[in-house]
Amino acid sequence: MDEDVRVRIAPSPTGPLHIGTAHTALFNWLFARQKNGKFILRIEDTDKERSKDEYINDIADGLSWLGIDWDEGPERNDHHGPYKQSERLEIYQKYAQGLLNEKKAYHCFCTSEELQKERQDQESKKQPPRYSGRCRELSEEQIAKFKAEGRKPCVRFIVEAKKIKFKDLIKGIVEFDTALFGDFVILKSDGVPTFMFAGAIDDSLMKITHVIRGEDHLSNTPRQILLLDALNFAMPEYGHLPLILNPDRSKLSKRKNPTSLSADFKNKGYLPEAMVNFIVLMGWSSKTGKEIWALKDLINEFDFDAVGKSPSIFDQQKLDWLNGYYIRKLPIGELARLSLPFLQGTGFEDGKEKLLVALSLVQERIKVLSEISDLIDFLFSPPANFQNILVSKGSTKEKTKKALEKALEHLGKEDDFGRDSLEQLLRAVANKHDLSAGEILWPIRVALTGKDASPGAFEVLEALGKEESLKRIRTALDMLK
């Protein structure tokens, strides 16, 4: 029943929240909210050396920033907690011992060197690498000998050869041959569970009804099905989301790509609304063809039937376009508020009225908030070193000099520095002196801003005012001389 739906996201806090994890979290959250179910945040922190509290905080902050809340999680241990695997070690050890008692698992004393040699031998014979099972039937004498040598055993689950078939929520019918697996480790020699074992137990004890995760976990699913069956646990439904790839179809890598939700997106000035919209479109599309989605509207529209089976492409241009779209929709006061963290120390944040004017000029051009200071700096200080772009393509130095001289002459006589009056004036000046609009407006705009891409000349003249505008045009003329 819909009200019984329980899904989870279970990130490992060994790094900042990954865009792929956020993608999986969003799809789970939408499904839970649509079905009036529960969304659980579980932390898989059994990697003692790499797991850090700062990454747990980053994960929680990132999800909250996107608008993804959770019904149960590590900040409280009610319901089915604790929700950190490091606080559940006794649970895993108990179930591992139960499998040992039922002869469904055994202690394995193989060293890493022995396992490596076994793998190399199999590869040399072009055999699929899998554990041979040589510790399955150890005698008491052999066990005593290994213990005397100081070997600490892990626990391996016994895999019987059979076919595992299940219906994936996204991929449809999937089948695996367990004869290819070999007996796999469920408890390491230090008593820490493997990902597959802990995850299967937690999903059952936390009454997870649907395990929705990335396709890179598909090969783990048949092993977890075997474990759940051996433990007599209820089986959740599984769904595996397509991977996210680069445009060249290589896998997203945190070493090579922007993947950290906080460092690479939030802290660079992407808006949460844009990120949610972008993330959901990687792998899902509405039957309506609509591409602009608010989070609250996605709850009713989202459907796993519309999730594609092919990998999704991370399209940076699409993200920038979406972010620019949401920035353009912001009230100017809200844009100023959101811009302030990116303007600290520039001096631009001090004059509120001037900042609002500046933002109104560049709002249509902003893709990310972090670029605002570069877009508005000309309004706060005169530009420099722009002589190489002062002459527009197709024009000449002589025409540019003439355009600036005539503009300076007529602007000096003009009292109305409103953009409409300025436009009428400068277009008339261009016609009178056999100049095209571009031949007069380009050098004026460059003289005022120092940029080859900026707001229009009329808008900038109005914003700077008569005195400052004339001063900058004179400076540009001196450069030409």
Q: Would you list the SSEs in sequence order as H and E?
A: EHEHHEHHEEEEHEHEEHHHEHHHHHHHHH
Count up the domains: 3
What's the CATH first level of the largest domain? Alpha Beta
Percent helix, as a range, is 40-55%
- Contiguous uncertain segments of 5+ residues: none
Number of helices: 19
Describe it:
The chain has three domains: 88-241, HUPs (Rossmann fold); 268-379, Glutamyl-tRNA Synthetase, domain 2 (Orthogonal Bundle), CATH 1.10.1160; 387-480, Arc Repressor Mutant, subunit A. The chain has 481 residues and is mostly helical. It has helices at 19-34, 53-66, 89-101, 112-124, 140-148, 195-205, 221-230, 261-265, 272-280, 295-301, 316-328, 332-339, 352-362, 372-376, 397-413, 419-432, 437-449, 457-464, 466-480, and strands spanning 6-9, 38-41, 105-108, 154-157, 163-168, 172-177, 184-187, 210-214, 237-241, 244-245, 312-313. The radius of gyration is 32 Å and the shape is elongated. The strands form five sheets. A three-stranded antiparallel β-sheet has the order 3-4-7. Helix 9 (272-280) crosses helix 11, helix 16 (419-432) crosses helix 18 (457-464) and helix 17 crosses helix 18 (457-464). The model has no long low-confidence stretch (mean pLDDT 94). The chain contains 19 helices and eleven strands.
